[in-house]
């Protein structure tokens, strides 16, 4: 029969709980978890007991270890401490971190968080180029960015436009707009609103500008009052005349595609105009008698002569004199006089 193990006495302190120290007689096989429960017999919440831990000479001890395996000897002082969340995993610092680790952690400055509401309001109340508060006269480009006209024109003249605004090539790419200010806004900077619905021009609501008249209206107002004319000046407009201001990426893509199509149509129109000015029809040459270009460069390489297209009843010499100089004469210059061709003296 095995003899019972010898009991020995220890002391337990409670500095974090404000309780007086106690002297206990323990068996070496007693676990620290059971010792903790014996100290609080009426405490039934396991979560509360888990927030407490024993330490010996400043070293945390596991609840699953026995008194002897933890290195507790007779007359030793165990300290019961309160575990603080967010430490080294055991309620406190592990002591393994070095001073350089903390210095490196705080050496890199984290970027300041940007308030999305401030970004949104800034986009709708300031110039996209100069970031100054919006003030008339204002313009938008063909994809919905809003500007103060003066800094945009200056940047265009001095060729200082950023790459994101390279699609603005001249005054034709600027659409003048009319913003309706909020009366007595009580703010140092000017704020604007929809003249029909009264919604503030701050990015919470969608707005469109009408190309023909330049009035800026809210999308809500255009949906409620369905009309093909401007709700302010009653000027007719089409769906293609509406430009979404500060639209989403999909809306900007649609506006950019529309802008390229308009430029393509304008380019074709210019090419047709140039081709018409170079054709013979502008100079009154009948298509039946061939154009001037075809006559000048005949298949045989023959040089163009005016008499070749002379009217039927006209004298060729008289008709040719319209396009050429007068007849050459027999007069020649000598050392004592200068003879001019007839008709020029």
Task: Kindly summarize this structure in a few lines.
The protein is an alpha+beta fold and 345 residues long. It is built from 9 helices and 13 strands.
Can you describe this structure?
This protein has 345 residues and is of the alpha+beta class. It has 3 domains: 8-82, Roll (Ubiquitin-like (UB roll)), CATH 3.10.20.90; 116-257, 2-Layer Sandwich (Herpes Virus-1), CATH 3.30.40.10; 289-345, no CATH class. The chain is 26% helix and 15% strand. The chain has a 5-stranded mixed beta sheet. The radius of gyration is 47 Å and the shape is elongated.
Notable traits:
345 residues, alpha+beta, Ubiquitin-like (UB roll), Herpes Virus-1, 3 domains, five-stranded mixed beta sheet, three-stranded antiparallel beta sheet, 9 helices, 13 strands, 26% helix, 15% strand, Rtf2_RING-finger, Ubiquitin-like_dom, Ubiquitin-like_domsf, Ubiquitin-like domain-containing protein
